């Protein structure tokens, strides 16, 4: 018998503190993180302005880092001036990744209607930026598994994470082979997510992290409320149950993986 591990720290590898702030939830977000043992938060940018707002949040909170992104819902790829602004933000010492970037082929009125070719131009421009800055990328993939794989394979020097991983175990293996970790969100706690749950059970110890994507996608048992970074503990617990291992082990593994991936301080062996 080995002694049970004490409570291990967590990293919320993907949330939107600026959107939480707009909803009056920034304090609640940071308090929820402290209560759940979330020691580090990666707050993710969606465009130039949002990335710059995330920079300001990171500058004023020791446990927050930020990413510089161009979300696939942006109606056009970044123009030259926007690319320069993104490039400059990436020189900031607390900028840890390029993202979110990616492809979204789920079209619905009021959600987004950016054509695939515009999304692809944006994604490739951002992958080039990540390559130039030697930063990982945070990839958004909704209903676009095949197209995303083709795109990331065209940038073999770039590593990253598949945020809100929504594929099955086989797609997970292909992403890992391309150099990408799988990031499990609250979706993995939903009853109808068996393929994603199988991917969470099958991933190797070094290949996965956890995230909230808050304020969206609250995990069971918080569904129906705005999500908060602290709720990542429910997702880590669900992943541990799926893997048949102790929750503290999964917390330790995902935290080490997140720190290695994003270059965050702390133990990351
Ligand atoms: Zn996303
Ligand atoms: Zn997001």
TrEMBL record:
Alphabetic keyword roster: Hydrolase, Metal-binding
GO CC annotation terms, alphabetical: cytosol
Protein name from the UniProt record: TatD family hydrolase
UniProt binding sites for a divalent metal cation 2: 140, 163
Glycoprotein listed as a keyword: no
Keyword Metal-binding listed: yes
Superkingdom, natural source: Bacteria
InterPro entries xref list: Metal_Hydrolase (IPR032466), TatD-like (IPR001130), TatD/YcfH-like (IPR015991)
UniProt: a divalent metal cation 1 binding residues: 14, 16, 100, 213
NCBIfam families hit by this protein: YchF/TatD family DNA exonuclease (TIGR00010)
GO molecular function, one term: metal ion binding
UniProt signal peptide: none
Organism the protein comes from: Candidatus Amunia macphersoniae
CDD domains: TatD_DNAse
């Amino acid at each position: 018998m080995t002694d049970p591990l004490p409570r291990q720290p967590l990293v919320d590898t993907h949330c939107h503190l600026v959107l939480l702030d707009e909803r009056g939830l920034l304090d609640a977000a940071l308090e929820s993180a402290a209560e759940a043992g979330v020691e580090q938060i990666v707050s993710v940018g969606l465009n130039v302005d949002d990335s710059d707002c995330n920079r300001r949040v990171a500058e004023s909170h020791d446990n927050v880092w930020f990413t510089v992104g161009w979300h696939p819902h942006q109606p056009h790829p970044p123009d030259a001036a926007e690319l320069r602004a993104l490039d400059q933000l990436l020189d900031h010492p607390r900028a840890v990744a390029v993202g979110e970037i990616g492809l979204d082929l789920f079209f619905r009125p009021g959600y987004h209607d950016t054509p695939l070719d515009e999304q692809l131009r944006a994604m490739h421009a951002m992958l080039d930026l990540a390559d130039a800055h030697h930063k990982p990328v945070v990839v958004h993939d909704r209903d676009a598994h095949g197209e995303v794989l083709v795109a990331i394979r065209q940038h073999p020097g770039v590593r990253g994470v598949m945020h809100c991983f929504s594929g099955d175990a086989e797609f997970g293996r292909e992403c890992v082979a391309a150099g990408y970790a799988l990031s499990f969100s609250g979706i993995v706690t939903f009853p109808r997510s068996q393929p994603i749950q199988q991917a969470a059970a099958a991933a190797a110890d070094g290949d996965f992290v956890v995230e909230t994507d808050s304020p969206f996608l609250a995990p069971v048992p918080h569904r129906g409320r705005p999500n908060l970074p602290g709720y990542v503990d429910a997702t880590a617990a669900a992943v541990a149950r799926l893997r048949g291992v102790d929750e503290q082990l999964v917390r330790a593994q995902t935290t080490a993986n997140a720190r290695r991936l994003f270059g965050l301080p702390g133990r990351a062996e």
